[in-house]
């Protein structure tokens, strides 16, 4: 059984519709060949961008804003005549699975907690950074260029897995305290969502 997964929708530019159309074609072709296809497309319905946009709009609730845009996205997919995926899990509905994966990362010594925030330690994983695009090297990355530098981190390249709750923001319970996952850890969330919805036998490709 094959699994087709696509990057979650989180208010992307309309030009990104090409990716969804491409996966729709692949989905249709595999079904045409006789494969029993499980097509997974998940929604990142909470992250920094969603919270920021909610604060800037008349919709104060980030979850409600996500729900509205998710429905608009589904309408766009319908207008493009894309087939519905087999399942469409949402991040906010699978915090238990996400926390389970973060817990395993910490148990394996690859993560650490500071004041309710959880970080991934790049030094604990020698393979990290080999997939950087355009031949860039991890050591050449400039701390603070994309996000504010957190001087509490063991290594400037360490990235957040979980953010401690801030006043007025949605939060969920975790072993490190109330908070939410960070959007940069997309693969982490995708794996948690797929694990929650699929059996090991279902997951042949990711």
TrEMBL record:
It comes from the Eukaryota. The keyword DNA damage does not apply. The keyword Protease applies. SUPFAM superfamilies: Nucleotidylyl transferase. Keywords: ATP-binding, Carboxypeptidase, Hydrolase, Ligase, Nucleotide-binding, Protease. The lineage of its organism: Eukaryota, Viridiplantae, Streptophyta, Embryophyta, Tracheophyta. Residues 1-181 form the tRNA synthetases class I catalytic domain. It holds the Pfam family tRNA-synt_1e. This is Gly-Xaa carboxypeptidase. It comes from Datura stramonium (Jimsonweed). One of its GO terms (molecular function) is carboxypeptidase activity.
